[in-house]
Amino acid sequence: MITIYDDLKHSNEVKSLLIDFQKYLHSIDTTNEIKELKNEEDAKRYLTKMSSDCKEMNGKMLVSIENEKIVGFIQGVVITKDDPEDIMYATTHDASKQGWIGVLYITPEMRGKGLGTELIDSIKSYFIEQGCKTMRLLVASDNKPTIKTYHNYGFIDGDVEMSLKIS
């Protein structure tokens, strides 16, 4: 079952999932730049920021519940790109409203059961209601299984962020 995130009811479970999510990202990061969340307080601050981003950017956070337990979540925000003062963007792109997925996480034991697709479908419907023309996200290049999942959903590769250690 997909439901809107209710921080009073679900925050402890989502904090625990955030810790697991960051631990996973740390484990696959070949750049050695991603660190694990240190403790529950870090997870609380991260979750608070995700929630405030939703409020400030017309976003939404949804959770997937199976057997009365949260087994996944998605957070997304709406970004409007129409500022004529942003010369670099305004001269090279049409104004647009974009839905951005900030975080998507499914517990390892629940992966492959369609829950990620359900969460993406739900946030996509929300983005469509908000008038978004595209849905975007960033994914770590080391996260091959997730990239495959997004390709299977229909996402296409866009910009590539690259880094070079210089000190």
Please give the order of strands in the largest beta sheet.
1-2-3-4-5
Order of helices and strands: EHHEEHEHEH
Q: What's the structural domain tally? A: 1
Q: Counting H and I runs of at least 4 residues, what is the number of helices?
A: 5
**Structural class of the helix and strand makeup?**
alpha+beta
Relative helix content? 40-55%
Which CATH architecture?
A: 3-Layer(aba) Sandwich
Structural account:
The structure is a single chain. The protein is of the alpha+beta class and 167 residues long. The chain has helices at 7-28, 40-56, 87-90, 115-129, 144-153; strands at residues 2-4, 60-66, 69-81, 96-106, 134-137. 41% of the residues lie in helices and 23% in strands. A five-stranded mixed β-sheet has the order 1-2-3-4-5, sandwiched between helices. Helix 4 (115-129) links the parallel strand 4 and strand 5 (134-137).
